[in-house]
Amino acid sequence: DSGVTQTPKHLITATGQRVTLRCSPRSGDLSVYWYQQSLDQGLQFLIQYYNGEERAKGNILERFSAQQFPDLHSELNLSSLELGDSALYFCASSAYLQGGAFFGQGTRLTVV
Amino acid sequence: TQLLEQSPQFLSIQEGENLTVYCNSSSVFSSLQWYRQEPGEGPVLLVTVVTGGEVKKLKRLTFQFGDARKDSSLHITAAQPGDTGLYLCAGAGDSNYQLIWGAGTKLIIKP
Fold it and tell me: How far does the CA of residue B98 sit from the closest CA of chain A (Å)?
């Protein structure tokens, strides 16, 4: 158990819809990262928050947005969903980057 | 742009054999991390190396950070079917806020 909790574990939705993925980081970790992993693909960095503020942005589509709340949990919002958005979405947290990141179990999103 | 090249991309060997996975870059990293990922699950941090030349051992797995902190290797001795998985390396720089990821090595150990 990494200590990072992601909900829901599975999500099936239709094209054009909007979904929210939730992440609770490890106790004490201020940084939260979001990643997308499509089938048999590597991890694509989406965005990072540190103590409530956006710190780094990767290849995140404009249809996607995220935020980190005062209690440090984070949400990733995906809107106007397309079939190609079907993927595993991972949240990770860390105390400091050099020490490594701890990943949640992921949310498997299927857009039909 | 910092890049990490991981090789080989795919490796299928018999139980009991030894193997080495490499992670190379032209950039210097303040730490190099190795993760293992099973299908449908999140990557799990195996080790972090931070000092040039550092060697860390985790049972049959040996991790080494290059002297110049630009490359790393993972060596598995007497591989077992339980070692099967996707192995990922990731580098942390001094000034950026995200990890730089290798593409991964898909390892299959046949009984």
Answer: 7
Residues 33-92 of A with CB under 8 A from B: 33, 42-43, 45, 48, 50, 55-56, 58, 88, 90, 92
* Contact (CB, 8 A) for B108 and B79: no
Which residues of B fall within a CB distance of 8 Å from A89?
none
Q: Which residue of B has its CA nearest to A3?
A: B44
Task: Determine the pLDDT at residue A110.
Answer: 97
pLDDT digits (tens, 9 = 90+) for A58-67: 989 999 999 9
- Do B111 and B90 form a contact (C-beta atoms < 8 A)? no
**Three-state secondary structure readout of chain A:** CCCCEEECCEEEECCCCCEEEEEECCCCCCEEEEEEECCCCCCEEEEEEECCEEEEECCCCCCEEEEECCCCCEEEEECCCCHHHCEEEEEEEECCHHHCCEECCCEEEEEC
- The torsion angles phi and psi of A10, rounded to 5 degrees, stand at -130, 145
A74 burial type by CB count under 10 A (0-12 exposed, 13-18 middle, 19+ buried):
buried
Size of the A and B interface in Cβ pairs below 8 Å: 59
The answer to whether the Cβ–Cβ distance between B88 and A42 falls below 8 Å is: yes
Task: For residues B44 and A100, give the distance between their C-alpha atoms in angstroms, rounded to a whole number.
Answer: 10
A80-96 tens-digit pLDDT: 999 999 999 999 999 98
